[in-house]
Write a structure and sequence with these properties.
Blueprint (H helix, E strand, L loop, with lengths): L2 H12 L4 E6 L10 E6 L10 H10 L3 E3 L2 E6 L4 E5 L3 H12 L3 E5 L15 E3 L3 H5 L8 E5 L4 H14 L3 E4 L3 H13 L4 H4 L2 E2 L11 H16 L4
Parallel strand pairs: 5-6, 5-8, 6-7, 8-9, 9-10
Antiparallel strand pairs: 1-2, 1-4, 3-4
Helix pairs in contact: 3-8
C-alpha cells in the first residue's frame, strides 16, 4: 500500500469514518499487487461503477472480491453511549462489552456516576454536552438515555438524532415519551427523526427487572446494528 493512501486510511480510522480500500488485481496478479483506491463513506460519486457494491459493503461490514477487485472494509468499532448511571446501566455495561461494544457512561450526578458503581468502563461524571462536544456521536454509535430526567436526557437524544446514530433509545412510558417528543419537536427536531426514538426502550420481551431491561435494550441495539430492527 502506498504511503499516501496508508496515511489517509489511518486518518479516517482515527476519526471513526468508514472507508473501503479497493485493490484492482487485473494489473498486478503476478506480483500480488494492484492499483488501489480509497473510498470514504458518504463521499462516493454517483457515477462510480462500484457504487452499489461499496454501499452494500459499508452496511454489511464484510470484505470480499467483486470480479477482479478486492474490497477491504474498515468500519469503526460499534460504540454504546449510556446516559445515566442507573441500575439498568450497571447491567448493560458488562453485556455490551462482552458483545464487542466500546461503552461509556455519562451522568452529572456523582452519586450515580461513581467508580465504585462502574469500575471497568469509561465514566464521565459531567453534563452530556460537555462530553459530546469533545467526543461527538456518529453513525456507528448507539445512545441509550436512561435517567428519566429531561435536563440530562434531552440534549444527548437531540444530538444522537442529528448525528444519525444507528440506535437512539429512551426510557419511559407512553406519556413520558409524548412529552419528550413535544420538547424535542419544539427544539427543531423533525418528525422523521423523532420517529427513530425507541421508546419505551428495548425489545418487548416482558422485561421487569433492571437486568432484564438491560438485556432487552442491548437486544434492540444489536438488532439495529445488524439491520434486523
Amino acid at each position: 500500500m502506498e504511503l499516501e493512501l496508508l496515511s489517509r486510511l489511518n486518518e479516517m480510522r482515527s476519526k471513526r469514518i468508514a472507508v473501503i480500500v479497493a485493490t484492482d488485481m487485473t494489473d498486478g496478479l503476478q506480483s500480488g499487487k494492484g492499483r488501489q483506491r480509497l473510498f470514504v463513506r458518504g463521499e462516493i460519486s454517483d457515477d462510480e461503477p462500484l457504487n452499489d457494491e461499496l454501499n452494500a459493503r459499508f452496511l454489511s461490514g464484510k470484505s470480499g472480491s467483486v470480479g477482479e477487485v478486492f474490497l477491504a472494509v474498515y468500519l469503526p468499532p460499534p460504540r454504546l453511549v449510556i446516559i445515566g448511571g442507573v441500575h439498568i446501566s450497571q447491567h448493560m455495561v458488562g453485556l455490551a462489552q462482552a458483545a464487542g461494544f466500546d461503552v461509556s457512561v455519562i451522568d452529572p450526578r456523582t452519586a450515580f456516576a461513581s467508580p465504585e458503581r462502574f469500575p471497568n468502563v469509561t465514566l464521565h461524571a459531567e453534563w452530556p454536552d460537555e462530553i459530546l462536544n469533545d467526543q461527538p456521536l456518529d453513525s456507528y454509535t448507539a445512545l441509550a438515555a436512561l435517567t428519566h430526567d429531561p435536563k440530562i436526557d434531552d440534549m444527548p437524544l437531540e444530538a444522537a438524532l442529528h448525528a444519525g446514530c444507528f440506535y437512539v433509545g429512551a426510557l419511559g412510558g407512553r406519556k413520558t415519551n409524548e412529552k419528550r417528543i413535544a420538547r424535542l419537536r419544539s427544539s427543531g427536531v423533525s418528525d422523521d427523526q423523532l420517529a427513530r426514538i425507541d421508546a419505551p426502550i428495548g425489545l418487548d420481551i416482558g422485561a421487569t427487572s433492571p437486568a432484564e431491561i438491560a438485556v432487552a435494550v442491548l437486544g434492540s441495539v444489536i438488532a439495529n446494528l445488524r439491520g434486523k430492527a
